[in-house]
Design brief:
Layout: H1 4-14, E1 19-23, E2 32-35, H2 36-51, E3 61-65, H3 69-82, E4 85-88, H4 96-110, E5 114-117, E6 131-134, H5 135-138, E7 157-162, E8 172-176, H6 190-203, E9 207-210, H7 212-217, H8 221-229, E10 233-235, H9 238-249, E11 265-268, H10 275-287, E12 295-301, E13 306-310, H11 316-321, E14 330-331, E15 336-340, E16 357-362, H12 374-380, E17 387-395, E18 401-406, E19 410-413, E20 416-419, H13 420-431, E21 437-443, E22 450-456, H14 464-482, E23 487-490, H15 509-517, H16 522-542, H17 549-562, H18 582-596, H19 602-607, H20 611-619, E24 637-641, E25 649-652, H21 663-668, E26 674-677, H22 692-706, E27 712-717, H23 719-735, E28 740-746, H24 753-757, H25 761-771, H26 777-782, H27 785-789, H28 793-803, H29 806-812, H30 816-832, E29 846-851, H31 860-866, E30 880-887, H32 897-919
Parallel strand pairs: 1-9, 3-4, 3-5, 5-6, 10-11, 11-12, 22-23, 25-26, 25-27, 27-28, 28-29, 29-30
Antiparallel strand pairs: 1-2, 7-8, 12-13, 13-14, 15-16, 16-17, 17-18, 19-20, 21-22, 24-26
Helix pairs in contact: 1-2, 1-6, 2-3, 9-10, 13-14, 14-16, 17-18, 17-20, 22-23, 25-28, 25-30
Keywords: Phosphopantetheine, Phosphoprotein
GO molecular function, one term: very long-chain fatty acid-CoA ligase activity
InterPro entries: AB_hydrolase_fold, ACP-like_sf, AMP-bd_C_sf, AMP-binding_CS, AMP-dep_synth/lig_dom, ANL_N_sf, PKS_PP-bd, PP-bd_ACP
Length: 920
């Protein structure tokens, strides 16, 4: 049995009941299944289709860029059966110049390969010479069964797997059919593809793939799935094990003990395993019935077909030897290791037991080189054929390996390698002349690697304010571009001489790390933290004499709502800059109302978002001392972000009419003003809209008042999509096609009247309660809607109030009148659309699709293809579809908003770039 195709042929033919289970994003109750037999049929069928595609070349790379695990696995095998070499492209960077750099390097290396992706990803892959085929387009073709398997030998190239992830210049590691394939994560990671998928396939046993976001957001799900399916072999990196222990310790006492007696091996790799975590995990697993040595730290690389060295006596051996981090153990069959003295490059010598040096490997499981990159291949091997890993390590007297660190400059963030060069380059560009020097390096002082940024100020610059601005810029850039929160500090003048600068002026990262971890920059870190904290406190003190008592009270209200120090807030600090969520705003309103014994609308907070402006309006003549609420004339525009140099984004409210849901999203979008349109009817005396036309005319006038001419960018959440579509038609009719550069639909199809006709006041009340988190999803989904809809409004309200989470109700400070008025607004909006039929054409539309509402579609695929895709009938160009995390009500909630904002910004940028190119 020489090739991967042989493995699937055998298992697909003789193990028909064995299968792969997939837990898709936000679907954790039960998996969907694909049998090995079905996988074989798909591979043969679509392998024939791939063979027929223009541009496909046998024994040459074919790129796969898909987010869905099931689709990725199916197309890997289809390309293999076509005789190609599959290469899975990792998730592309959110930063355009990084993405261009990565794709440009791949295009040059692979020489115009075919690329299989989804339509929504086309905008990310433009201009790089790939021959692109979309799943949507391929599904329209009719493949024939391929009965002829392309001949391959054990020495032929089987797979290409990229190193350096999505953050550096990728190297494509060559893995041939003859390597023993022995993991978990995304299919673009060697551990998932080789150590879990292929190993389980070889053995003919079931395997389960869970979307990483499911695990990271709810770590104990990992244990639940192990128990549910009697898993015997799994993988988890050190950062996840820490989260897992924290989550387990937070579970309520008395919870029924899980049964993990089936679990034999839990491999952990990707970064060093600190011993304290190992001991806690091992103890936890043992209490649940697993063997005491279940946790198995290991070492592997893409170049070694994933895990190749394992510690099968953890944590006992490491505790006995007094280690701080766990050993990664001994080699499996098919690989050898040695550690060489780093200082003797011309005359290499093996280190003594326990002595640190350069780790080198060789054997059948080690790659023979990098595809299309002979120079890098040559540098990666010694003259006697050993692969240089780039790691500093030591082998003890028992033959066990311990990894000490890396010689290379990558930083391991949550198991993903981030290029120090890339982080540093982006920061240098973002900060410009604000800094003199900057260096990015890892530190491991807290047991897990952290991106660390040290910088020096330009000559003559000593302001503490500059340090605060630099720290804010660094943190924002790293979170947005690399998904990590760095440690940032300024190197003081007194410490400049410690910087390890070479004769050429380069700061050595390994030396900088060593100095930092030795504590030589502790005073600099403390100085930076102290200066920035004092600055914020000082700013508060400078204006304290000018603050009136009501302003001071509001500052404390803001601080207590967010659980921060009042000194970090002054009278001009906006709620939008403080990170207020929609629920924080409602809590803030409740806190102020309770203290003042009066009613204040959320609109007042949105219109007057600083302690100073809010205090002024509350003490103005509009404020009634007789405990009546502040009256604010209706203006649909809520300014979520007033400044920015990109096209402003207009966000149209969902069916509940409120715009609080956009607060978190606005905080994630940079460099453009953000405005939201709020429905009429929330405030006392305001009439609801009577027609869609009236709403559109009102919103159009408000938009024109703020932004007289285009280009425009508009998006609607759910129901708001319909209004955004109508607004776009009006703007394009008045200013011409293309004046709206971006139109976004957040999970709403064009045809909505049937669903609107099923909405009455009671069902609007129920959806509102779920939207606010007053009742759980299960309550809303299990409600007998017919019975509930037949209740009177009073009875429906009483029924709902009996089921609400009392603590949350009190926390939000809601009253019966509040919820009734809100339901009135929602119901009024639904009634406007009971006879709505979409008509007309817009230039473009981008559709962001999440899990649909219950009953809206039979499946996610049905929702996208049979409902959302109908936007093509109302658009001059093909709609661009973007899959996002979460469900209809949670897609821009706290758990998913960062990823959603990244996709939204990328989509807007793609549209803007397209129009700019077309103008040239």
């Amino acid at each position: 049995m020489d090739t991967l195709q042989d493995v699937l042929l055998r298992v697909g033919s003789y193990s028909p009941r064995s299968r792969i289970g997939f837990y898709d994003l936000d679907h954790t109750s039960s998996p969907t299944y694909l049998t090995y037999q079905s996988l074989l049929q798909i591979a043969r069928q679509y392998g024939a289709l791939v063979q027929s595609l223009p541009g496909f070349r046998k024994k040459q790379p074919a790129i796969i860029y898909l987010e869905d695990q099931r689709e990725s696995i199916c197309w890997i095998w289809s390309i293999l059966f076509a005789g190609g070499v599959p290469l899975i492209l990792p998730q592309l960077s959110n930063l355009p110049h990084q993405r261009q750099k990565q794709l440009g390097g791949l295009s040059a290396m692979l020489q115009k390969p075919i690329c299989i992706t989804r339509h929504e990803s086309l905008c990310l892959l433009d201009g790089h010479g790939f021959i692109i085929y979309t799943i949507e387009g391929l599904m329209g073709l009719k493949p024939t069964l391929n009965n002829v398997l392309v001949g391959a030998t054990s020495r032929d190239l089987a797979l290409l797997i990229l190193t350096s992830g999505s953050t550096g210049n990728a190297k494509a590691v060559r893995l041939t059919h003859g390597r023993p394939f022995l993991n978990w994560v995304g299919p673009d990671h060697v551990a998932s593809l080789v150590e879990i998928h292929l190993q389980a396939l070889w053995l003919g046993v079931d395997q389960f793939h869970v979307h990483p976001a499911n695990m990271i957001s709810s770590p104990t799900l990992f244990l639940d799935i192990i128990e549910r399916h009697s898993i015997c072999y799994a993988f988890a990196p050190n950062f996840f094990l820490k989260s897992l222990i924290s989550a387990v310790l937070s579970e309520p006492r008395g919870r029924e003990r899980r049964d993990l007696s089936s679990l034999a091996i839990l491999v952990s790799g990707g970064e060093a395993n600190d011993l304290n975590t190992c001991k806690m995990v091992s103890h936890c697993l043992a209490e649940m019935g697993a063997p005491k040595n279940t946790l198995t730290p290991g070492f592997g690389m893409t170049e070694t077909c994933a895990g190749a060295i394992y510690n099968v006596d953890c944590p006992h051996y490491d505790v006995k030897t007094g280690r701080r981090v766990a050993s990664v153990g001994k080699c499996i069959q098919g690989i050898e290791m040695r550690v060489m003295k780093q200082s003797l490059a011309t005359d290499p010598t093996v280190t003594a037991p326990g002595e640190a040096g350069s780790l080198q490997l060789r054997g059948e499981v080690v790659t023979k080189g990098y595809y299309g990159n002979p120079e890098t291949t040559s540098r990666a091997f010694t003259v006697d054929g050993w692969f240089i890993t780039g790691d500093t390590a030591a082998i003890d007297s028992t033959g066990r390996l311990t990894i000490m660190g890396r010689e290379k400059d990558d930083i391991n963030v949550n198991g993903i390698n981030v290029s120090s060069d890339d982080v540093q380059a982006v920061l240098e560009q973002a900060l410009g002349k604000k800094i003199s020097r900057i260096i990015c390096f890892p530190n491991n002082n807290n047991g897990s690697e952290q991106v660390t940024i040290a910088y020096t100020l330009p000559a003559g610059v000593t302001q503490v304010a500059a340090m605060a601005a630099i720290e804010d810029g660094v943190v924002q850039t790293c979170l947005t571009g690399f998904g990590c929160r760095p440690l940032v500090f300024c190197v003081r003048r007194d410490t400049l001489q410690l910087l390890p600068v070479s004769a050429l002026g380069k700061i050595s990262r390994p030396k900088m790390r060593a100095l930092f971890e030795a504590g030589l920059f502790n005073k600099d870190v403390a100085f930076s933290r102290q200066c920035i904290d004092q600055l914020r406190s000082h700013r508060s003190q400078l204006v304290s004499t000018a603050k009136k008592e009501d302003e001071m009270c509001l500052i404390h209200d803001f601080a207590q709502t967010l659980d921060v120090k009042p000194g970090t807030i002054d009278i001009n600090t906006s709620i939008f800059n403080l990170g207020f969520t929609s629920m924080n705003l409602i809590r803030l309103r409740h806190r102020i109302e309770t203290r003042l014994n009066t009613k204040i609308s959320v609109l007042t907070l949105l219109k007057y978002p600083t302690p100073g402006s809010l205090a002024a309006i509350l003490r103005s003549q509009e404020y009634s001392a007789s405990n009546q609420s502040v009256e604010v004339a209706y203006d649909p525009v809520i300014v979520l972000k007033p400044t920015g140099n990109k096209t402003p984004l207009w966000l149209v409210h969902p069916g509940v009419g409120e715009v609080l849901v956009f607060v978190g999203l606005a905080q994630q979008l940079r460099e453009r003003p953000i405005y939201a349109l709020r429905a009429r009817g929330f405030e006392s005396g305001q009439a609801h809209f009577r027609t869609i036309h009236e709403a559109v005319e009102t919103y159009l006038a408000a938009i024109r008042k703020r932004q007289r001419k285009g280009p425009y960018a508009i998006a609607g959440y759910s129901y708001g999509t319909m209004l955004a579509f109508e607004l776009t038609k009006r703007l394009e009719a008045e200013d011409g096609p293309g004046t709206v550069r971006f139109l976004g639909s957040f999970n709403l199809p064009p045809h909505i009247k049937e669903r609107m006709r099923h909405q009455d006041w009671n069902s609007c009340l129920l959806h509102l309660a779920y939207f606010l988190g007053l009742v759980p999803e299960a309550y809303a989904n299990n409600m007998n809607l017919e019975e509930f809809r037949n209740l009177s409004r009073l009875a429906a309200l009483n029924t709902m109030l009996e089921a609400v989470d009392v603590d949350r109700w009190v926390d939000l400070g809601l009253s019966r009148q509040d919820i009734e008025r809100w339901a009135d607004v929602a119901y009024g909006l639904q009634r406007l659309a009971i006879d709505y039929d979409p008509a007309g054409i817009v230039e473009t539309i981008d559709v962001f699709h999440a899990q649909p509402l219950q009953g809206a579609a039979t499946s996610q695929e049905d929702w996208v293809m049979d409902h959302l895709d109908k936007w093509r009938h109302f658009c001059r160009t093909s709609p661009r579809l973007h899959a996002v995390g979460g469900a209809h009500y949670t897609m821009i909630g706290p758990e998913h908003v960062v990823a959603f904002a990244s996709k939204l910004e990328a989509a807007m940028e793609a549209r803007e770039n397209f129009y700019e190119r077309s103008r040239r």
